[in-house]
Amino acid sequence: MFVKQLLPALAAIGSVAAQSTCTVSTTTVQSQAEATKLANCDTVRGTVVVGTTAGDINLDGPTEITGDLRVLNNGAISQISSSSLEKIGGSFTMTNVTKLNTINFSSLTSVQSLSWQSLTGINTVTLGPLREADSVIISDTFLNNLDAFNLSTVKILNLNNNRRLVKISNSLTSLEDFLNIQANGINLEVEFPNLLWIANMTVANVTKFSVPSLRVVNGSARFDSNLFTSFSAPNLTETESGDISFVGNAKLQNMTFPRLTSIGGGLLVANNTGLDRVDAFSKLENVGGAIKLRGNFTDVSFPELDVVKGAFDVSSTADISQSCDKLKELAPRSQGGDGNIQGVFSCTSNNEKANEDTDSDTSTTGSTGGSDDSDENGAAGIAFNAALLGLVGVAALASAL
Ligand SMILES: *[C@@H]1O[C@H](CO)[C@@H](O)[C@H](O)[C@H]1NC(C)=O
Ligand SMILES: *[C@@H]1O[C@H](CO)[C@@H](O)[C@H](O)[C@H]1NC(C)=O
Ligand SMILES: *[C@@H]1O[C@H](CO)[C@@H](O)[C@H](O)[C@H]1NC(C)=O
Ligand SMILES: *[C@@H]1O[C@H](CO)[C@@H](O)[C@H](O)[C@H]1NC(C)=O
Ligand SMILES: *[C@@H]1O[C@H](CO)[C@@H](O)[C@H](O)[C@H]1NC(C)=O
Ligand SMILES: *[C@@H]1O[C@H](CO)[C@@H](O)[C@H](O)[C@H]1NC(C)=O
Ligand SMILES: *[C@@H]1O[C@H](CO)[C@@H](O)[C@H](O)[C@H]1NC(C)=O
Ligand SMILES: *[C@@H]1O[C@H](CO)[C@@H](O)[C@H](O)[C@H]1NC(C)=O
Ligand SMILES: *[C@@H]1O[C@H](CO)[C@@H](O)[C@H](O)[C@H]1NC(C)=O
Ligand SMILES: *[C@@H]1O[C@H](CO)[C@@H](O)[C@H](O)[C@H]1NC(C)=O
Question: Other CB atoms closer than 10 Å to residue 33's CB: what's the count?
């Protein structure tokens, strides 16, 4: 099959050209002997699929594959390598390759996308390092570091269920679409020292998250079930359109956002039971959505808060009546405040069930919020659904299409 595809192409191109470009459409390599047939090709025009081979595969020769390089559902191969390959024009996809322990593409610096999933035996990865990729998905692998990757920008970075991964330190300066980090090694420490802006992120189950240079979150930032005791975004000034949320970070004691002045969407801080004060937002002026806070805190302060488009809904297991008295000054005029908060204002103390409400919509507020009447909850619910479920963003996207 391989020969049938390759030979006519070689014949058509002529011998000199054949040495440099081989057009294969899609070719399946079943053995090293078949892989070696590509050795004279500088550019392989097409997609290379590694079949059910049990042996190691070495793809020395080509510097570029214009299509994909794929290895799927192979439980036998243990090593795949190429010292020459620099670029994969399509996707470098490996899925369910459970005995693979070594990937060595020591010259590979550019792929369009990389997706490695269920590589449960992978131990050693060498890449150029990889400098260019739109999308990197690494899921359910046995990798313990990402030293093979040196991207300065990427659209999608999704790292999940890599149980041995305990440190991510990366020179990314921007991330254009989505970062997801979840369920990796216990005590995972994440550092993005050079990251200046990021479109969206969800980060869960990490012990440290460091973004000292981060200035802008264009979309949303969500932190769930992390193990850090403190969180700081020292240079963050705004989220352009999305939310900031911290839910169920059981050890969190200290948050600081010393320069954050504007949140385009909503703010949700809930069920972080170690957090005894919500005073991190000392410069926050504008919130495009709602603010919802639930926890064991005794103090809540937003000294610079000027405009909240949605509801302001706070409830604690502790007595926060002093904070409530102060915050009430910001309530809508209809509730006796000066109108900085445009949605419904609600602030309740001694609510045993405060931590049970972590939803980004307030449909359950009625059961936990104490004395609010249902009309107010309805209004608050609308504000939250729009802000925290990202409907504003979806609507904007829909109208842009
Ligand atoms: C994974 O690959 C093995 C062959 O190695 C196959 O038997 C199995 O069905 C594949 N699993 C999935 C979920 O595709
Ligand atoms: C990877 O391949 C390069 C080139 O063949 C070789 O020099 C290097 O030692 C290999 N690295 C590993 C970790 O096998
Ligand atoms: C990573 O890339 C940066 C430039 O973006 C370069 O300065 C640095 O040396 C690279 N690191 C490695 C390990 O290749
Ligand atoms: C995110 O915001 C930064 C700073 O304002 C901007 O340079 C960048 O283009 C924005 N990115 C996206 C994807 O909107
Ligand atoms: C990891 O985070 C998820 C939320 O994204 C949570 O459901 C899960 O319980 C966490 N796991 C651990 C071990 O903390
Ligand atoms: C934080 O921002 C200030 C002013 O914009 C800048 O001088 C400083 O270098 C930034 N810090 C980091 C760690 O990027
Ligand atoms: C990420 O954020 C941008 C705003 O910069 C938004 O338009 C986009 O829809 C978000 N993407 C995802 C996958 O949430
Ligand atoms: C909270 O964190 C900030 C900066 O990370 C630090 O300066 C401050 O001392 C911490 N406060 C507490 C009570 O730990
Ligand atoms: C937080 O409040 C809940 C509900 O009252 C309580 O069970 C829990 O012990 C408190 N946790 C801390 C760390 O104070
Ligand atoms: C609150 O967080 C604790 C862990 O700290 C978790 O066990 C519990 O399920 C969370 N509650 C809700 C409603 O998410």
Answer: 10
pTM: 0.88
Instruction: Let me know: does 5 contact 22? Beta carbons within 8 Å.
Output: no
Pocket residue to mutate for ligand 6, from 197, 215, 235, most atoms within 8 A of Cβ: 235
Which residues line ligand 4 at a C-beta cut-off of 6 Å? 176, 197, 199, 216, 218
Q: Decide: 148 and 169 in contact? Cβ < 8 Å.
A: no
List Cα–Cα distances, 97 to 146, 270, 312, 385, in angstroms: 19, 40, 50, 41
User: What single-letter amino acid sits at 36?
Assistant: T
CA–CA separation, 205 and 160 (whole Å): 10
State the pLDDT at residue 200.
Answer: 98
Mean pLDDT (the chain) is: 87
Concatenate the DSSP letters of all residues of 213-261 into one string.
Answer: T--EESS-EEEES---SEEE-TT--EESSS-EEEE--TT--EEE-TT--
Pick the residue whose CA is nearest to atom 3 on ligand 5.
225
Residue by residue, DSSP assigns 303-327 as TT--EESS-EEEEESS--HHHHHHH
State the DSSP H helix or E strand holding residue 292, giving kind and residue range, or none if neither.
strand 291-295
- Quick: pLDDT tens for 21-62: 999 999 999 999 999 999 999 999 999 999 988 889 999 999
Q: Relative to the alpha carbon of 169, which ligand is closest?
A: 3
State which amino acid sits at residue 362. Answer: T
Best CA proximity match to 380, nearest among 272, 254, 291, 267? 291
Q: What is the pLDDT of residues 151-194, one digit of tens each?
A: 999 999 999 999 999 999 889 999 999 999 999 999 999 999 99
For 16, residues 6+ apart whose C-beta sits below 8 A from its C-beta are none
C-alpha–C-alpha distance, residues 8 and 63, integer Å: 22
User: Which residue, by CA, sits nearest to atom 13 of ligand 5?
Assistant: 205
Q: What is the pLDDT of residues 93-133, one digit of tens each?
A: 999 999 999 999 999 999 999 999 999 999 899 999 999 99
Q: Are the CB atoms for 179 and 154 separated by under 8 Å?
A: no
